[in-house]
Design a protein that fits this description.
Helices cover 79% and strands 0% of the residues. The chain has eleven helices and no strands. Helix 3 crosses helix 6.
């Protein structure tokens, strides 16, 4: 039980800004950390659902608040709760992919702490697309969007444990090497099965669209990380998570719009 508690604390301290007690970073303590990674998505999903309900209530009460206020708040929530760690990986990856350099140079760019022009442009486009998606949310699609935060983290965790590593050292390599892979993967695949079932039951056609969109991004991520970088890194896992969430959210909105 102590081992699980330490893994929980490491997962939340590493991948979120939610205050938790400190835990020593040892191979034993990180062995089950990936089991708790999707739980952070559950917190983000719950917060997103709560803000959406407040938005609906404010509109019904006729409060003088523009819907854009809540849309921007929804955009900011994942970054505030996660601390932007996955967005950082997305930006670094965009810089590396846009450099058209050899694999070794791309890996160096991932480690560069400076944001290049392509990272900034990608960030602007990313949030503009998300703004359009969130501005179109309704009571049906928001449920799928909330579950998308769990789905993306579950798939990202599976990739860290199953994909080849681009480096022998680094965040992804540490979690991969230190994990009790068989039980952790069993938990993550159980999450995946449960989340997928709930998304289909709740969203029906739109839920299937979300799963297909996330699956397509996962396949691309597998190919891209292998061919462009020689394996996965923490930055690439963050890149996948961000793209997966946006793509699944867009599929939820479009899928719901078609069935209405």
């Amino acid at each position: 039980m102590k081992r699980l508690w330490n893994s929980f604390k490491i997962a939340f301290s590493m991948y979120s800004r939610i205050p938790v007690p400190a835990s020593e970073w040892t191979e034993e303590n990180i062995s089950y950390a990936m089991c708790f990674f999707p739980w952070i998505g559950a917190v983000i999903g719950a917060a997103t659902w709560g803000v959406f309900l407040v938005k609906e209530m404010a509109l019904r009460q006729g409060l003088a608040l523009d819907p854009l206020f809540f849309t921007v708040l929804l955009l900011a929530l994942p970054v505030v709760i996660s601390g932007g760690i996955h967005l950082d990986g997305f930006l670094d990856t965009q810089d590396a992919l846009s450099s058209y350099q050899p694999k070794e140079r791309r890996l160096e760019i991932l480690k560069d702490s400076h944001a290049g022009a392509f990272a900034i442009l990608s960030c602007v486009v990313y949030f503009l697309l998300y703004l359009g998606v969130y501005a179109s949310l309704n009571k049906e699609s928001v449920k799928l969007v909330c579950m998308g935060f769990l789905l993306s983290r579950t798939l990202s965790g599976i990739s860290v444990l199953c994909f080849s590593q681009a480096r022998k050292q680094g965040l992804a390599a540490s979690f991969s090497q230190g994990a009790e892979k068989k039980p952790v993967l069993a938990v993550l695949f159980a999450y995946l099965a449960g989340i997928s079932a709930v998304m289909v039951i709740v969203g029906r056609f739109a839920g299937i669209c979300c799963l297909l969109a996330a699956g397509g991004v996962f396949v691309y991520y597998s190919w891209m990380s292998r061919t462009k970088f020689g394996g996965v890194t923490g930055d690439l896992a963050g890149y996948f998570l961000q793209v997966c969430e946006l793509t699944a959210a867009a599929a939820a909105v479009l899928g719901t719009a078609v069935t209405v």
